[in-house]
Amino acid sequence: MKKIIKGLLVASLLTVGVATPIAIDGQDVAYAKSKVTITKKEFNKIKNGMSYKKVQKIVGGKGELISEVGQKGDPYYTYMIIYYGKDGISNANFTFQGGKLQMKAQALLK
C-alpha cells in the first residue's frame, strides 16, 4: 500500500505543470492547477459506478485530467482525474472507464 501511495504522489507531482484543456463527451473536464480542492469527507462520499458529473457535483467542480487511454466513445476509453487538497500536496485520483468510476485512491487528505 505504501508503494501505491508513493507512486500516486510522484505521479501527482509530475503533472503539476500541465495546462491543456481537455474535453470528454463534449464537456471540458480538466485544466491544470484547478482551484477546486477536495476533502477526505468528499472523497469518502464518492463511490465506484458514479459518473464524472456526479463526482464534480460532490467536489464542487472539475479536476485535472492526468491520463487517458483509448479513443473517446470506445467502451474501454479510460481516463484519470486528480483533485488536490487545500495544501496542494494531498490529492485524490479517480479512474473512469465506460463513463463510470472504476477506481479511486487518495493520499494525505484531511
TrEMBL record:
InterPro entries: DUF3862. Keywords: Signal. Residues 1-23 form the signal peptide. This is DUF3862 domain-containing protein. It comes from Viridibacillus soli.
